[in-house]
Amino acid sequence: MPRSANTVVVDAGYWYALFDSRDALHTKADAKASHIESLTVVFPWPTLYETLGTRFVKNRLGIDRLARVLKQSNVRFIDDSPYRDAALEATLREARIGKRSISLCDMVIRLMIEDVNIRIDAILTFNEKDFSDVCRSAKVEIL
Length: 143
Hints:
The chain is of the alpha/beta class. The chain contains 9 helices and 5 strands. The protein has a 5-stranded parallel beta sheet with strand order 3-2-1-4-5. The chain starts with 6 loop residues before the first strand and ends with a strand.
């Protein structure tokens, strides 16, 4: 368990891996599942939209497990509206110049990590390179 973490934001890729036993990263995701139970999970709405895509909603067992997680008292949903315009602009700008090609959802998460008004101590992701710079500067641990 991370020593200083109380809140964790979780990338959609982690949810896919955790709830799909055929996913190549399932074993790694399962090994980190205790973080979901022991920390406050900060859940940006775009992550939920990305996770509940067409492929995932066909996974009945995964849907049932995710639904149980979403009802836990340690889950806190975060409104993304303060970040939408800036995230869209940054996603398009950075993709056009070849600086960074990440999803709009991940850009929203990056902006939330930078926001000093939201407490985020850690992130669960398998795309460390998409978040390493912002996590380093905000002192957010990558689990």
